[in-house]
Description:
The structure is a single chain. By secondary structure, this protein is mainly alpha-helical. It contains 19 helices and ten strands. The protein has helices at about 30-50, 55-60, 125-135, 155-160, 180-190, 200-210, 210-270, 285-335, 345-365, 390-420, 435-475, 480-515, 520-530, 535-565, 575-615, 630-635, 675-680, 685-710, 715-729; strands spanning about 15-20, 90-95, 100, 105, 110-115, 165-170, 175-180, 370-375, 380-385, 655-660. A two-stranded antiparallel sheet has the order 1-10. α2 crosses α9 (about 345-365), α7 crosses α14 (about 535-565) and α8 packs across α15 (about 575-615). The longest helix has about 60 residues, at about 210-270. The protein is elongated and about 95 Å long. The protein starts with 14 loop residues before the first strand and ends with a helix.
Amino acid sequence: MGCCGSAEVSPARTKREWRPLEDRSCTDLPWFLLFTVFCVGMGSICSFTIVTGGAARLVFGYDSYGNTCGRRNEQIEGVRLSGLDHTDRKFVFFLDPCNIDIVQRKIRSMALCVSLCPTEELKTFQDLRTFAMLNGSELCSYELAGHKYPGLPERFSKCPKLPVPPSKPLPVFNRCTPLDISCYTKFAEAVVTFVGDNSFLHRLIAGVAASKEIIVGLCVLALVLSMIIMVIIRYISAILVWILTALVVLGSLAGTSVLWWLYIDHRLYGNDTSFKVEREVKEEVEVSRDGGQALLVYAAAATVFTIILLLLMLFMRKRVALTIALFHVAGKVFIHLPLLTLQPFVTFLALLLFWIYWILVLLFLGTTGNPVQNEETGLTEFRLTGPLQYLTWYHAVGLVWISEFILACQQMTVAGAVVTYYFTRDKNRLPVTPILSSVLRLLRYHLGTVAKGSFIITLVKIPRLLLMYIHQQLKGKENACARCLLRTCICCLWCLEKCLNFLNQNAYAATAINSTSFCTSARDAFVILVENALRVATINAVGDFVLFLGKILIVTSTAFAGVLLLNYQRDYAEWLLPLVIVCLFSFLVAHCFLSIFEIVVDVLFLCFAIDTKYNDGTAGKEFFMDKALMPAVRAGGGAWAESGEGGGAEGAEMKPMVSDGGSLGGVVRQKSSSEEAGGFVLCLSEDVVLFLCIYLPTSTLFLFVSLLCTPSPAPSANTAKSAAVTAKF
């Protein structure tokens, strides 16, 4: 057995074949069954809330005595005024709707079922009686008679707070909602836990309401700009990359020059300002000497860093060119596969539908369970008790796992389409809809692999979220050591999650190529990435920066357009919230679209690495790559360099790419059988050699410099006293 139950390659098998787009079989079927069972459990929770009445209480509402509005209710033991017939009372009315609990984020007012919401302001108890007599809707507690409201002593505690604001029922949830915007301000304070100047928040909300058309238009502009950037980024990527390279080199040279200039200036002119303590002190201390030594260490370290940076630029210039070529080919992919631009919409729609369902079921769980009387307010609430309270935790795990599953399906779909594009020699013979073909392959063969990969991310994300919650709850209470430990654990889990996300994405691409299980694909992809470590580092560093600049360009362009459109509003305070909403939405849209571009680039690189590893351009081993990628491997020479373009004949038959490999962690061996019997041979690639020769010495040097740069000891009491005496004279 292999990793996590996957089938392992037998030791007798010495050939590892990559068969792009040839053989298909179901992968990780047990994980698909496990995920199906989990989803059935999620649906069972929803069914449980519906059967036990939690969904009805949320939709129709219930009063403070446990009665569901609009229905005939059963008596609840120990709760007075329960079991009433509210067939004609379909709306929930709060006696004090603006009494918001900021901490618990809920209304602390008593709730009653009424037949009609007050549409006009009621200022006196006489108005309450008139409203009850004319409309048959009693707004005080059930045991009080409507015609006696003005004279009852209980009217101050069991009747609504005066004046009663006008309200209207919500379209679905049948709650009487005040029309006064000040209550919305209180609701906003409860949601964002913002307690401050109500008038300022009122102005912000009014600014959003007045600028809603502009906000929608700017959001559409962000969508259009994101699509345009995805098309033109292949033309401007070269300029951005070389500008970035030039800025980094010039910045390091300038920083080093400034440090050496400061050191020389200190040596030439610093002695004039230095002073010596009196001869009574045994050890003479020169303040300038410590500063000069620190500047010398900094200048030397900056010089070494600059030299190493220049060497890295020299060694990695071809890899930077590979990044530019990959961006160029990624742009071609979007031209041949235009439906890729719809992937963010489809994924967002799937996530949005699932999140709406998840929030509804969570609200259902909040009104499901046994009736419990609140000791502070005396109101009846419904809570899950006993083993049923773990349903909320199960539901929370489902939020993370299914969300990651949907994102993983997007990655697998994009990877399958890009793999189809790359390994099809004649682009005129591409399927009519490669995206739909990739989706069908995913649904038919690889849902188990996606479920397994998303579950691994869930195992890392949930502990990180729990630690973040604990850190937030203990804020200001824990000591410095515990706070540092929590932050360290959160940071480590975040880094592990990012690494696993990257590895999962490449594992999905390997599965799309060879139809192997998750662990086998992850192992094969990991070997390919390790053998191209510096290429991966260059593509991620340079490529991520270029994409980040694209995101910034979209956000700043949208914000600039927003400033121009909002300029007619004289109150500049009203700009804040609309611009924040527009900038957040534009960044989200840019991130969604450019993340698809990033996935395409990563999958193209994995295909390129596999192509260059197992093919050399000779007959029978023709390259699959685009001609734009040829310069990235032309310097490697070989037989393919003599075969013209090296791209193979148009429409040539795809052959399996075979390499000699064992089953130990995917370490590739190209040795004879006698050498294989003698032991395992580790072939270090050029990237690994550069890593050992440059990266490790660099990190060791910086560690040594940091140890040298120790703070000078504090002067003794006698030294300080002598210095003070000298200063006096």
